[in-house]
Design goal:
- The protein is mostly helical and 145 residues long.
- The protein contains six helices and no strands.
- It folds into two domains: 51 residues, no CATH class; 69 residues, no CATH class.
- The longest helix is centred in the middle third of the chain and has 33 residues.
Amino acid sequence: MSKTKPPYPVAFREQIVELARAGKSPSALSREFGPSAQSIANWVAQAARGKGKPLPGKEGLSSAEREELVRLRRENRQIKLERDILAKATAWFAGGLGHGRGDDGRAGGLGAEHGAGHTQARLDDPSHRQRLSAWVQGVVATPVG
């Protein structure tokens, strides 16, 4: 089982990076201060990316870009969830329109004069509101892939 250590304080990492920039090797700093040479090299590379000057072969995202990427991915998941809910709600409401016989007795559902008020009439009916509420709760509880 691997033992994980808490992260080193930011001020400590910054001091190590400054010493590395001053010419000390990561292995020498590792022996003197404790963090692994690889960790120190990673800190130096991340600091360079943060200043907009990545080391050759160490291109990547700065901390600010990484935070923005995480935020945008979270926002994208939320938007997809809302889109899926709206698509299912649209399908549910459309399911009540144009099926069977409408009030005017014609096959195919509603006459043109009834189309606008039909959805509102369904929402005014308590049994339809309960079904919609249960459906929405099921949709919200369904994870988005």
